[in-house]
Structure formats: C-alpha cells, structure tokens
C-alpha cells in the first residue's frame, strides 16, 4: 500500500488526507498544535458556556462541492444551520440593507431604483451557481466545462468592486456590495476586486451563509471521524521542520504557507519553485475581538439583529478608503469590520441570554497595535448601547493570530494576497499549481487554488493530483 504524510490538520490537510485514504493510500497526518482543525477550531473564548469560532465562522462555499459530495460529512456529525438574514450592512441613522436567500426579496427591499438591476445580476448567477462554483473551486487556468455561466460570472468578477457597485443608485445597495467585496482584503478600485464579492453574494442566495452547528470544529471532527474509518491516523504535537525527518513516504502533502514549505523542503526544492514560494505575497491582516454580549448587539438597523454576518464600515467611499489604507500599510481611523453573530443561526452557542460575537477588523499586515477600542466604537456607531452590553472580551493581535495558525503569516487569515496575479496564479505559475516540483510532493493549503475557505477544495484538488501521480507510476 502506498504511504502519504500530510503536514497540517486544517480543513485542507484533512480533506487531502481523507481523499488519499479513500484512494487506498496509508495516511498519517502530523499536526504541530495539540488540537486539529487550523482555522476551524472552536471554544469558550470569553465566558463559560459561550461557544466561539476561533477563525472561520461561516461557510457559504462548503455546502455543495466536489469534496462535500464525495464524502457526505453530514452523515458523520456535521450539521449546517442558516440565519434568517444571510448578511447585512447597517448605515448611519438606522438605515441599511440585507441579503436574504431570496433574490427577489433582497432586490425588493433595495427600492425601485435598484430592484431590477439587482435581479438582473444575481438572478442568472444564482440559477447557474452550481456550475460556476465547480469552475472557480479549481485552478482558474483550465478548460472550462461550463463556459457560458463562467463567462457571465467573469464579466462581473473582473471589474473593480467600487465600479461594479455603481450599477446601483442607492447608498444602501452600493454599501451592501462593498461590504461583501471587502472580504477580498483588496482596494475596491483594483481590477478583479469584485470576484470574491460576486461569488459570496451569489452563494448567499443559492446556499446561504451557514454555520456549523456546535462550532466550526465539527467540520474537521467529521473529517477526522471519516478518516479513521479508512484507517488514517492523526498525530498532534508534532512539528515538522525538515522533510528528511519523515522517512521516504510515497507522497508528502504540505498544508502550510509557501515559505514554510520552502523551509521544510530545503535544498531539494527546485530553485525556480523555491523562488516562487519565497516571493508569494501575503495580504493585510485581521485583528480579532471575541465578545460576550448580553441580549446580542442592539443594531439600529433591525434586520442586522437577525443576520449571521454584519459588515460594519459605513458607505462605499468610507470602505474603499479604509481598504486602500490597509493595503498601503496604514491603519484607518474607521476600519472595515466583519461581525459574526453565529448564535443567530445556532442558538445553543449562547447561554442565559448572553451571546458570543466574533469581530474582525481589517488592519495592515503585521500591525502591532490594539484595535479593541476601535472595534467597539465602530459597532457602537451603528448599535447604540452595545458598549453597555459587553460582559467579556478577548482580543487577538496579528502576531497572536499567526502564533495560533502559522499559515496566517502576519495575521493574513486568507493565506495570500488576492492580487489579480495571485487570484489566477497561486502559489506559482505552473500547469499543476499544487506540485512542489518534486515527484510526489504537493502544496495543499489555502495558498493553492482556490484559496481561502473551510471547503477543503485545495486539499481535495491536491490529493487528486497526487493520486493521478501514483496511477502514472
């Protein structure tokens, strides 16, 4: 039986392990931490009984993928829960906009000026999204199986987000798109800055933005359970610094950053690949604050109280300015903030009327300041009385985020800058972007296509490539 070692037990590492094990490979996963899961770990960060997701909280692209269809984790303890409002965007004065599963309802609440325009964009994309998502959850350079829906998606995705947002007239509609586009950690006037916003916005209508009931850790727990059924093993507390420590497995898959992969592979890495891995660009960072909030956040925009995710940043010009400054290495006075209200979809995470809330501010890479007060002030701006409801907080700086997961270099929780070049060619220019240029060695982290998310597709794609290599021997 061929053997494989996977370094790193985040969702991509475990997806790779599971895919290889199902293909008849003897698999061992090595994890440096004492617990598995990488960015999908969960726990009591503030008060006893309040369950927080440590990083990844909502999973709109994990519901219907090649990996999820193959392994059916819902039969192994994973259960998805949806909020009533998928995401929202409050504005000053109690105004705002919200995204519901229904395109028609979302469009209808935007008003007469924007109703038809929203339907024309998101209606066709939503209907064909299963075909579209299969295309972009793999390397972008490939022969498309569904060229027509992919082309329609690409026409929107290629535009600067700030420009695409101008198809709508109202401040609410423009801000609504700016908030979801800001997930890219890119200046909103840059080419292709719409791509992630269009994908996540369409996913909200097709699949919703679900949370894993019982915490994101149940995703990787289900993977580990399935892996054990195939005879795979996971060893925690094992740090790998040199691949020569691992013996001679037939396959080696690295769920690491490209620079860490270069360190592990050392002089055995072809020089051109080593240079590419060292040049791989990481993006801006996140500063996280976990809150325990009595009664939940009292948003002045009422639908935001029912939203799983709330984008906090004001109108389009304010978000665009904040994102531009962050990419330039400047800390904005009012940063864009992503607020996760997972207990809206999964009420068992709350206790005695106190709710766990996870907030992430976009900050410059490696920023060493403390954004706790800034985050509180920004939320208070749109939810008067929020400050008085806080019962406990726990903050994580960019440095602490990297210590928590070394793949998040400098606090970069999306594992790589979403520049136009890296959206197409990540982690390097190659026909097989997963291959490290050494027979049987692959990079399977979110630095490889299709990038960030707890969907496991980078690991699934890399493992399938590895299985093809074994089949060619």
Automatic annotation (TrEMBL):
<dbReference type="InterPro" id="IPR036188">
    <property type="entry name" value="FAD/NAD-bd_sf"/>
</dbReference>
<protein>
    <submittedName>
        <fullName>NAD(P)/FAD-dependent oxidoreductase</fullName>
    </submittedName>
</protein>
<dbReference type="Pfam" id="PF13450">
    <property type="entry name" value="NAD_binding_8"/>
</dbReference>
């Amino acid at each position: 039986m061929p053997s494989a070692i996977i370094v790193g037990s985040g969702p991509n590492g475990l997806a790779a392990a599971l895919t290889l094990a199902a293909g008849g490979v003897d698999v061992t996963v090595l994890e440096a931490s004492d617990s598995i899961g990488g960015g999908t770990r969960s726990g009591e960060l503030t008060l006893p009984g309040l369950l927080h997701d440590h990083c990844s909280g909502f999973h709109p692209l994990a519901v219907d993928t090649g990996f999820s269809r193959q392994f059916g984790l819902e039969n192994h303890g994973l259960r998805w829960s949806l909020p009533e409002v998928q995401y929202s965007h409050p504005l000053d004065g109690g105004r705002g906009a919200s995204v519901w599963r229904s395109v028609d309802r979302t469009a209808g609440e935007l008003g007469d000026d924007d109703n038809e325009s929203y339907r024309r964009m998101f209606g066709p994309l939503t209907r064909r999204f299963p075909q579209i998502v299969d295309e972009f959850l793999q390397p972008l350079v490939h022969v498309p199986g569904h060229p027509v829906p992919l082309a329609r998606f690409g026409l929107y995705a290629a535009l600067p987000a700030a420009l695409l947002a101008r198809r709508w007239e109202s401040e609410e509609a423009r801000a609504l798109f700016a908030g979801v586009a800001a997930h890219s950690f890119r200046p909103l006037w840059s080419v292709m800055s719409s791509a992630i916003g269009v994908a996540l916005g369409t996913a909200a209508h097709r699949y919703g933005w679900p949370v894993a009931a019982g915490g994101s850790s149940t995703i990787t727990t289900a993977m580990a359970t399935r892996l054990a059924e195939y005879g795979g093993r996971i060893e925690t507390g094992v740090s790998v610094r040199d691949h020569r420590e691992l013996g001679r497995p037939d396959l080696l898959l690295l769920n690491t950053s490209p620079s860490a992969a270069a360190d592990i592979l050392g002089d055995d890495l072809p020089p051109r690949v080593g240079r590419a891995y060292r040049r791989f660009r990481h993006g801006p960072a996140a500063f996280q604050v976990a809150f325990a909030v009595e009664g939940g956040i009292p948003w002045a925009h009422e639908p935001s109280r029912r939203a799983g995710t709330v984008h906090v940043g004001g109108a389009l010009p304010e978000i665009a300015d904040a994102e531009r400054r962050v990419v330039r290495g400047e800390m904005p006075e009012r940063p864009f903030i992503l607020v996760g209200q997972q207990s809206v979809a999964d009420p068992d995470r709350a206790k005695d009327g106190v709710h766990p809330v996870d907030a992430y501010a976009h900050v410059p890479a490696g920023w060493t300041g403390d954004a706790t007060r800034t985050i509180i002030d920004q939320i208070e701006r749109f939810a008067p009385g929020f400050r008085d409801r806080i019962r406990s907080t726990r903050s994580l700086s960019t440095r602490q985020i990297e210590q928590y997961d070394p793949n998040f270099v400098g606090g970069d929780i999306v594992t790589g800058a979403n520049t136009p070049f890296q959206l197409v060619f990540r982690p390097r220019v190659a026909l097989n972007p997963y291959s490290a240029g050494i027979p049987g060695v692959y990079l399977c982290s979110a630095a490889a296509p299709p990038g960030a998310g707890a969907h496991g597709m980078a690991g699934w794609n890399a493992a399938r490539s590895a299985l093809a290599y074994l089949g060619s021997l």
